[in-house]
Amino acid sequence: MDPKKIGNERSTRDVPLGFTAAAAAARRAFRPLHPADAPGAMSAPALEHPPPVARLDGAPRRLPKGASDPISQRGGGCECDRSKGAIVLFYAYVPIADPASLVTELRATCGSNGVTGKLRIGREGINGTAAGSHVGIDAMIHALASCAREPRLAAAAKSLDYKRAPGCACLFDDLSVRLVPEIVPFEPSTGGAKSARKKRRGGRHATVGGDDDGDERGTETDASAPSAPSAPVPCPVGYLDPRDFHDAVRDRAASASTSDVVILDVRNWYESRVGHFEGAVLAPIRRFSQLPEYVESNKTLFHGKDVLMYCTGGIRCEKAARYLASLGENDGGGEKKNGDDAGVTGRPRSVRQLRGGIVAYARDVLGAEAGAEAGAETKSAYKGLNFVFDNRGAVPVTSDVVTWCDGCGARSNRLGKCAGFGCHVILVVCEACGGGNGDANGEARVFCCGSCEAQTIARETTPGAKQKRKPCECDGYESRRRRLLPTPTPGSVG
Ligand SMILES: [Zn+2]
Ligand SMILES: [Zn+2]
Ligand SMILES: [Zn+2]
Ligand SMILES: [Zn+2]
Q: Is pLDDT at 237 greater than 50 in this prediction?
């Protein structure tokens, strides 16, 4: 069975429809696991040790479209001395005049220096994570910082926070350098949430991630928009350094019931469920572009509040913060037709982003790039794993296990994948339940929901059936929301 990187989940825009005989063969032997019948379904057994950290397998190949790949627990799976290399995570919102040429140049520089990873380049900037030898990574950074064609990028690249951590080229299967319209996809191409779309202006800001000295930047008003009867109250957007963010989270925890502070995790649900800041609101979104849909249906949660926002490395907050701050701009001063939420636009009083994201927090507050060190549990306001988009899968910030297996309800943070055909939903699948997920020799399998399971079984038991995959209930919010509840819900799978 061909493993594939989990990072693809992030860019999956819709449920894949394809299916192949090869993928089917890998799943032939099945014995559906019914969560309610599984041992421990109703009560999570106490843990003596934290479960093994979830790891993703990575082998260099691309699966046929629609095939669902198992997530192996073997991790980056190499013998390299990672102190001899590095993985970096960085972004810069800075206008790039000729992104196509930069793509060509970086592809050549990284390729000839054995650097792997994913670089996304567009007119709005660059977003990248790359791994290789120190020499190779330095060559890539030098190429950015000395790019004569792009003086603004070159200037920014000299002082970026690259969030360098020990690593090796095996952390990615290959090198992917691509020209994209958005360096982190936020604007949906079709469908989904509707009304906030036109107002969003996230990508236009020239911001250098992690190194913007201006702590607070007022929001821009859209000069081309028709003038509103009364302008909404400005919502300042700014950054907090990791230590200040830590203090703010702790302050909020001390007065949670009366606080006007909302901590918002803007990552996808399968990321935030395995680790998050204390007291954070976890958005039940499968893709970042669904965030507006979520916010629009939960406006009162954010309206007039002070929002503390975070993501993995900071880049998603750049767009999410500006989106939140822009709410209500075209609503005629906040007047709504619906009497129930008249004036409720969802626009916060202020938005502050964690500068450098969870990666910078772990480094600067806990003193480790990947922790679970002695004392981290009490010191850290972030609990659990930090989901990453390389072959490490997720790295521990603390050893806390904050979620549970989708198959049996036992506490676990072992990443797995739905066993359904063509399904890419990332789940938590404990060791006991996960033996056979996607594995021809396996026994039990865990499915994201009953509709996915039923489709898969129908397909496997109907010879020659070639029906396309239909959307399952996980394409709606409810099943994701259930998985983010603070305690396991019996029957929450299916
Ligand atoms: Zn290696
Ligand atoms: Zn389980
Ligand atoms: Zn599924
Ligand atoms: Zn499903």
A: yes
Given this model, what pLDDT does residue 76 score? 61
The pLDDT, as a whole number, for residue 368 is 59
Ordered domains of the chain (ranges, CATH): 11-31+231-387 (3.40.250.10), 82-179 (3.30.70.100), 403-483 (no CATH)
d(CA 494, CA 73) in angstroms, rounded, equals: 24
**18 C-alpha to ligand 3 centroid (Å):** 14
- Tell me, in angstroms, the distance from the centre of ligand 2 to residue 43's CA: 12
Of 75, 43, 67, nearest to 405 by C-alpha is 43
Q: Which residues pair with 127 in a beta bridge?
A: 91, 120
Give this prediction's pTM.
0.74
311 is catalytic: yes
Residue in the structure block whose two tokens are 């204390």: 278
Query: How close is the Cα of 358 to the center of ligand 2, in Å?
Result: 27
Task: Give dist(CA 99, CA 107) in Å, integer.
Answer: 12
C-alpha 38 to ligand 2 mean position (Å): 8
Comparing 307 with 66, which gets the higher pLDDT?
A: 307
- Among the ranges given (7-11, 108-112, 341-345), the one the predictor scored with the smallest mean pLDDT: 7-11
Q: In this structure, which ligand is nearest to the CA of 418?
A: 3
